[in-house]
From TrEMBL:
Cellular component, GO, one term: cytoplasm
Family annotation (PANTHER family): FATTY ACID SYNTHASE, NONRIBOSOMAL PEPTIDE SYNTHETASE
Signal peptide start-end: none
Entry protein name: Condensation domain-containing protein
GO biological process: amino acid activation for nonribosomal peptide biosynthetic process; lipid biosynthetic process; secondary metabolite biosynthetic process
InterPro entries reported for this sequence: CAT-like_dom_sf (IPR023213), Condensation_dom (IPR001242)
Residue span, Condensation domain: 52-330
Length: 449
């Protein structure tokens, strides 16, 4: 059981105060929070260097709260329930210190992270960052930090931690969320939104009505989370990229589309890839929630695996360009198209590639068959969570882990069965291995033995 031994009140102040509409990225993640009944916290704990003091940790927290307007952002709600962002000029926040006693401090740090993530969150009153420290016999050993997803997406969090490490004093980018929302309401922003929604409408009107076959195994609790760790996907992908010249993201996407078509039997395949949007002017170093899901439609029938990767490379560029839009207006568009197509249109699965894969050595020999088979045999899959609180129908997050690639799947068993969910991730690995050995192999499922 976690017992807070000390609380240090940390005062802060910073620029950028004001109130206004949510930016598109903020509204997108807010809608996900409403659907999933969660404030979608992201948490981490790290070991501290010997000799770290409480005062130093208070300075870290003050730096974060003062420097980044997103860390000082809370929500207010209009009478109709519409959220608005409110950025404070100053305030106070508590840094908690927990005594581990004789317990394992790493275990206590993880328990504190879970406590922060599971504690109730008030969007209108709470600061979106929670920070605490673990102390063992008067020595600080670990720092715990949890952030609401409204503060930052993955790349925004990376900027935050990079600047925190060096206490950057560089000017904060001007395009903070309040300014983003103002631009998005401008004629230029509305032109971007109109163009993006036109792309979405084209996909929504031509994609198959069903994205998944009827689930053959509806479970209670119905929403499951699974983890697949693959030691073969990385080297296989390197070989595919070296032989085709494809970038990592579209290669992963194309092979995922092949696996999805093989499992569901449905083609063309519609997928919603996460797009970070940081290639847009002035947004690359902003600590904020900027990423949004795009949409692409991939016909992978009757072609080679290499051609599937090439089509993903070409199609994904259009998806990236059109992944910057007003999500409220997208919802209106989806409702209209669903009604016009008979009310049975299933939306595509989400695909969030967070890997940072290096460019492969084109001169390196392709991995041998025994090497890839051994790597496949080392892979592991496990179900980690079963709950009634909803996830999206199907979302796959992809991350680098030491020596491997990890895919984390959130799914509704009333939409896709647990067996098909596992088969999808293992089939994704199998398609990559097959493409590494023979890029000319067909996308059709290989014959069973």
């Amino acid at each position: 059981m976690i017992t807070v031994a000390d609380q240090v009140v940390v005062g802060f102040s910073g620029d950028g105060a004001g109130a206004g509409e949510l930016s598109w990225g903020q509204m997108d993640i807010w809608q996900a929070m409403v659907r999933q009944k969660s404030w979608l916290p992201n948490g981490v704990w790290i070991p501290l260097p010997a000799g770290t003091t409480v005062e130093e940790l208070a300075d870290r927290l003050r730096y974060v709260m003062s420097r980044y307007p997103a860390a000082r952002t809370r929500l207010a709600f209009e009478p109709d329930g519409a959220p608005r962002q409110v950025v404070a000029a100053s305030g106070e926040i508590a840094l908690e210190v927990v005594d581990a006693g004789d317990a394992d401090p790493e275990q206590v740090a993880d328990e504190l992270r879970l406590r922060y993530q599971h504690a109730p969150y008030d969007f209108t009153a709470d600061w979106p960052i929670r920070m605490g420290a673990v102390r063992t016999h008067d020595v600080l050993t670990h720092l715990v930090m949890v952030m609401c997803h409204l503060v930052a997406d993955g790349l925004g969090a990376r900027v935050l931690f990079d600047e925190l490490d060096v206490r950057s004093t560089a000017a904060v980018p001007a395009a903070q969320p309040l300014e983003q929302a103002r631009w998005q309401s401008s004629p230029a922003g509305q032109r971007q939104n109109t163009s993006a929604l036109r792309h979405w409408e084209g996909v929504l009107r031509t994609m198959p009505l069903r994205q998944f076959p009827e689930s053959r195994d509806r479970r209670q609790p119905r929403h499951w989370r699974g983890e697949f760790v693959s030691y073969a996907l990385g080297p296989a992908l390197d070989a595919v990229r070296a032989r085709t010249g494809a970038a990592a993201a579209p290669a992963l996407l194309g092979l995922f589309a092949v696996a999805l078509a093989r499992v569901t039997g449905i083609n063309p395949v519609a997928v919603r890839p996460m797009v970070h949007n940081r290639f847009r002017p002035g947004l690359d170093r902003v600590v904020c929630m900027l990423a949004q899901y795009g949409v692409c439609l991939l016909d992978v029938a009757g072609i080679s695996l290499a051609e599937a990767v090439d089509r993903a490379q070409r199609t994904s560029l259009t998806s990236y360009k059109n992944a910057y839009y007003n999500p409220v207006e997208l919802d209106d568009l989806v409702r209209r198209v669903v009604a016009e197509r008979g009310g049975e249109l299933e939306l595509p699965c989400y695909f969030n590639d967070r890997t940072m894969l290096a460019q492969p050595d084109a001169s390196a020999p392709a991995p041998a068959v025994p090497q890839l088979r051994d790597a496949v045999a080392r892979g592991t899959f496990r179900w980690t969570t079963r709950q009634d609180i909803p996830f999206e129908p199907l979302i796959v997050h992809v991350d680098d882990v030491p020596g491997a690639i990890q895919a984390t799947m959130f799914m509704d068993t009333h939409v896709i069965s647990p067996a098909d969910g596992e088969a999808l991730l293992r089939g994704w690995e199998a398609a990559a291995v097959q493409a590494a050995l023979d890029p000319a192999a067909p996308t059709a499922p290989p014959p069973t033995a």
